[in-house]
Amino acid sequence: MSFDIQISDALPRDFDNVEPLYQEAFPDEDLVPLVKELLASREDVLSLSALADGKLVGHAIFTMCSIDGEKGGSGSNVALLGPIAVMGELQKLGIGSTLIREGFRRLTAEGIGQVFVLGDPNYYSRFEFSQDDLVAPPYPLPEKWGPAWRSIRLQPQDQVVSGTLSVPGPWQDASLWV
Ligand SMILES: CC(C)(COP(=O)(O)OP(=O)(O)OC[C@H]1O[C@@H](n2cnc3c(N)ncnc32)[C@H](O)[C@@H]1OP(=O)(O)O)[C@@H](O)C(=O)NCCC(=O)NCCS
């Protein structure tokens, strides 16, 4: 299949389209309240839309965070990736990768040092996310999820930091982390 994908900052008119996208991509999980809260706090998030022929086909959110108890480095400039969703029939065609790489490009330019994610290691390892044992997630994870807690360093010259990821309000809900 061949089509042009455009990536843009999600505009308010995308809000109504974002909802069915997440409902379809996550049929067993209601992420819509989280997505809506994140999109409402726009200064704390990078919200990227993937558009094909002007239609929303993918969406990704990067939330700006900090690291509590960091030792060394500029750990306050970090981000959390998620959620991310691509329309069912267009999955595995590169749209998710395009959203993630565009997010990395923009965050790198803004001086963000590191991006964290809680997600499938098989998928995220392809972006050089590696398991992170130095910065703990905001809530303890079940042991079997250890390999799913990952990060990528966008500014390799920065010192490695350690501590606990401190997340803004929408992410301060333990049920999102179990
Ligand atoms: C996960 C998701 C965002 C990936 O987006 P996508 O556009 O389908 O992914 P891409 O096409 O960019 O994937 C690139 C590669 O990863 C593979 N891939 C995609 N999803 C994968 C998954 N869940 N596990 C392992 N590999 C996966 C693709 O096959 C592709 O492989 P290739 O390069 O060898 O062909 C999308 O499939 C989705 O919305 N899934 C349901 C919701 C979800 O699980 N979101 C992530 C958790 S927050």
Explain the overall architecture:
- Helix 1 runs antiparallel to helix 2.
- With 178 residues, this protein is α+β, with helices and mostly antiparallel strands.
- The relative contact order is 0.18.
- It has a single domain, classed as Aminopeptidase (3-Layer(aba) Sandwich), CATH 3.40.630.30.
- The longest helix has 15 residues, at 95-109.
- It has helices at 15-25, 32-40, 95-109, 121-124, and strands spanning 5-9, 45-52, 55-68, 78-86, 114-118, 130-131, 135-136, 149-153, 163-166.
- Strands 1, 2, 3, 4, 5, 6, 7, 8 and 9 form a nine-stranded mixed beta sheet that branches.
- Bound molecules: coenzyme A (COA).
- It comes from Parasedimentitalea denitrificans.
- InterPro entries: Acyl_CoA_acyltransferase (IPR016181), GNAT_dom (IPR000182).
- Residues 5-147 form the N-acetyltransferase domain.
- This is N-acetyltransferase.
